[in-house]
Design goal:
- It contains 23 helices and 16 strands.
- The protein is of the alpha/beta class.
- Among the domains are: 129 residues, Glucose Oxidase, domain 1 (3-Layer(bba) Sandwich); 110 residues, Enzyme I, Chain A, domain 2, CATH 1.10.274.
- An 8-stranded mixed β-sheet has the order 1-8-7-3-4-5-6-2. Strands 9-10-11-12-13-14-15-16 form an 8-stranded parallel beta barrel, surrounded by 4 helices.
- α7 packs parallel to α8 and α14 crosses α15.
- About 1% of the residues have low confidence.
- The protein binds phosphoenolpyruvate and magnesium ion.
């Protein structure tokens, strides 16, 4: 049956294809009602799956080596008994019969009831059996669904495969990059969550914050993702499909037209040159940056090299090889390498539990690096070594205190000494810049500009911290507002402070890649934009059509406006 879900549009375009469900836990299953005449078939499906697991357990038991401790066989027997317990074997059948639940739904509903009983047990030994019950049910669910449960189970994808998940961690998104998918939808997430940022980089349509998609959609169901409107259409009619196919073709034509802008110099109508840089996550992204004619890399998020490694971090050599690959690919164009920005929503492994109650305010980014000087030194040496092969700039994330700049500089000097001792070359004049993404930094620019060679405004975090909005929380995503007067003032002040001090200022947060905000940023005096390559040509198109004097006049009015409605009205007139 066709239905539509509304969420947050995070990456533009239209994708049409079949659902590939991805579960972050094995207990995340699709819920649907079956027809009355399907009841017996559904019960058989459940019984068959249980029988298969029972057989599996028997065969594991018979394959146990002679010398195995007797507890092993006892455990397997326990698992078989759990499966045969009426609570788990008969009750789910009743749910299928009475409520017409699908088998997976019936089984997980009953599991929840069983788990609740275990949680009430005072006896520790019995309470521990909860894990056994969960393991057994997980086995049955695997047999029932027969689909990929986690990313690593997916061999490969193709453009007609659309990912449906409850949530996707940035570390999992990296695995996404190595495969081909047409688009994705998630129940959680927001515009600047890192998964959304990666989707925009991949240039595939994505809608997040859908609430319940992962439970409602079935494996292989036909979907349309409308990444412009933030809409997901499930099982569309032929008429709707045809309409979207037409829109898809129009978008492809518009895309092809944009490509013609690649070789044009980026100048406004009044001849002001503008620098458009690329944000990258992995060395392979340079190809895209090159395709759209980026003038360099404005933000290389090195943390992605550190993800999904089960605790084993890349050493200096591995990092050097990656940074060098980027420097060589950019062939003389500057590469801004940001030091490790780990923590909060960018955990090293997707299954790593958050250790702080408020990780976004915890030991992340530069704070983490300064607390782990040996690890940080290895990265600094790798970056310095890459600087011997082309123009490299080093960017420090999450600065709030000038001491953090001073301490980083001490470590950079130490890294230089270590390289000198090994007779390894580096650029002694490598510029050192800082991210302005914490309000405290934007409000203490006088002391920051004295110590830095350039600034880069990270609007994603600047908005998160100024408006107290968790950037990855879909529940508050509607409050995440790049044109909030407070944000515009902080951005304007930072650009002005850089100009006064004679140091370059760029914006590398998602604001820079939003073509609807390009004129406003030009009007605030911005001359360097860094964004995902996929966004670069549409921003370039805006720049080519803009006049900085007009942009400045209206931007001033926007800054003076205190009412959000007036800000929006003025922004519309500017565009
Ligand atoms: C930002 O915060 O705007 C930024 C560019 O960094 P990240 O999105 O990686 O936190
Ligand atoms: Mg940031």
């Amino acid at each position: 049956m066709a239905f539509t879900l509304h969420g947050i549009a995070v990456s533009r375009g239209i994708a049409i294809g079949r659902a590939q469900l991805i579960a972050s836990t094995s207990f995340e299953v699709t819920h649907y009602m079956i027809e009355p005449d399907q009841v017996e078939r559904e019960i058989r499906r459940l019984d068959d799956a249980v029988a298969e697991v029972v057989n599996e357990l028997y065969s594991v038991e018979s394959d146990l080596p002679e010398e195995s401790p007797p507890e092993f066989a006892a455990l397997l027997e326990l698992h078989r008994l759990i499966l045969q317990d009426p609570l788990l074997s008969e009750e789910p059948q009743e749910l299928i019969r009475a409520r017409h639940y699908n088998a997976e739904w019936a089984l997980t509903t009953q599991l929840q009831a069983a788990v609740a009983q275990f949680d009430e047990m005072a006896d520790e030994y019995i309470a521990e059996r909860r894990a056994d019950v969960e393991q057994v049910i997980e086995r049955v669910l695997k047999v029932l669904t027969g689909t990929a449960r986690v990313f690593s189970d997916l061999a490969t994808g193709h453009e007609g495969t659309l990912i449906v998940a409850h949530d996707i961690a940035p570390a999992d998104m990296m695995q996404f990059k190595q495969r081909l998918f047409g688009g994705f939808v998630t129940d959680l997430g927001s515009t600047t969550s890192h998964s959304a940022i990666v989707a925009r980089g991949l240039d595939i349509p994505a809608v997040v914050g859908l609430g319940n998609a992962a439970r409602l959609i079935r494996q292989d169901e036909l979907l349309i993702i409308d990444g412009d409107a933030g809409v997901l259409i499930v099982d569309p009619s032929e008429i709707v499909l045809e309409e979207y196919r037409l829109r898809q073709r129009d978008l492809e034509l518009a895309h092809a037209k944009l490509k013609r802008l690649r070789h044009m110099p980026t100048r406004t109508l009044d001849e002001v040159p503008i620098d458009l840089w690329a944000n990258i996550e992995l060395p392979g992204d340079c190809e895209l940056a090159d395709e759209v004619g980026a003038m360099g890399v404005g933000l290389y998020r090195t943390e992605f090299l550190f993800m999904n490694r089960q605790g084993e971090l890349p050493d200096e050599e591995e990092q050097f090889a990656a940074y060098l690959q980027v420097v060589k690919a950019m062939d003389g164009r500057p590469v801004t390498i940001r030091t490790l920005d780990i923590g909060a929503d960018k955990m090293l492994d997707s299954d790593m539990p958050p250790t702080a109650s408020n990780p976004a305010l915890g030991l992340r980014a530069i704070r983490y690096c300064l607390a782990e000087p040996q690890m940080f030194l290895a990265q600094l040496r790798a970056i310095l070594r890459a600087s011997a092969f082309g123009p490299v700039k080093l960017l420090i994330p999450m600065l709030a205190h000038v001491d953090e700049i001073e301490q980083t500089k001490v470590l950079i000097e130490q890294a230089r000494e270590q390289l000198r001792a090994r007779a390894l070359a580096f650029d002694a004049a490598m510029p050192i810049g800082g991210m302005i993404e914490i309000p405290a930094a934007a409000l203490s620019l006088t002391s920051f500009v004295k110590r830095l060679d350039f600034l880069s405004i990270g609007t994603n975090d600047l908005i998160q911290y100024t408006l107290a909005i968790d950037r990855s929380d879909s529940a508050v995503a509607h409050l995440y507002d790049p044109i909030h007067p407070a944000i515009l003032h902080l951005v304007a002040q930072t650009i002005a402070a850089g100009a006064r001090a004679g140091i370059p200022v760029s914006v590398c947060g998602e604001m820079a890649g939003d073509a609807r905000l390009a004129r406003l940023l030009l009007g605030l005096g911005l001359r360097q934009f860094s964004m995902h390559p996929a966004q670069l040509l549409s921003v370039k198109q805006e720049v080519l059509r803009s006049d900085t004097t007009r942009c400045r006049t209206i931007a001033r009015k926007i800054l003076a406006a205190s009412e959000p409605a007036r800000v929006r009205m003025l922004l519309e007139s500017l565009n």
